[in-house]
Design brief:
Helices cover 31% and strands 30% of the residues. By secondary structure, the chain is of the alpha+beta class. The longest helix has 17 residues, at 42-58. Its cofactor is Mg(2+).
Amino acid sequence: MDISIDFMRRIAQAAAAETLPRFRSQGAVANKEKGSFDPVTEADREAERAIRALISAEYPDHGILGEEHGSENISSKHVWVIDPIDGTRAFISGLPVWGTLVGLTVDGDAVAGMMSQPFTGELYYANASGSHYEGPGGPRKLTTRKTTKLAEATLFTTTPALFKGAARERYDQFEKQVQLARYGTDCYAFAMIASGSVDIVADPGLKPYDIVALIPIIEKAGGVVTTFDGGPAEKGGDVVAAATPELHAAAMAALRG
């Protein structure tokens, strides 16, 4: 099935109505994880509630999996996967590199998705017509860079600290092989692969709502997204995305050792 850009815009607008007024507002932050720090804000919860209401009204038979409000009807052929604010740490720090992620799976495969960054006025989305951008500079179809060599690549990861033990040693060696490595930016880095500004993103320990929306955006722009061992990324895990199949194979080999 195809998802209209109009529906994606409506989702982005509904989420922005909840997130933007609370961005840089010094609102309350709760911690979801005892013994660690996994922040959640009122903006997260209310944005997801608004998104779920739109999906339920438009597609009442579809399932929904959300980071903040759990799952419903996920045995359905069609399941929407929601992260209302991917990058809550950036959000509470006042950095505009968070985004709203909403993706659709059909029989477990990610087929459509959107990443909205309302503070910068950007919308990245993919549907049956391909991968697209709307925002500053005007609308355009997205395409990845044609980088094939690690030595010419720009790499992002949230932080090398997420790699543990031998995996950290492999990551450190991997980073030495690329031209430029940068940290942070969560979903924004993945969107930059589709837009042709970044070549590789490697992030361990992702959840489905961290990646499902981004898979079709990258794939329909010419990139590749899998787990480190080459499996499908829709269920999360250790995920690597790259601008070209050749670069993806090189990155995967480096990360597996």
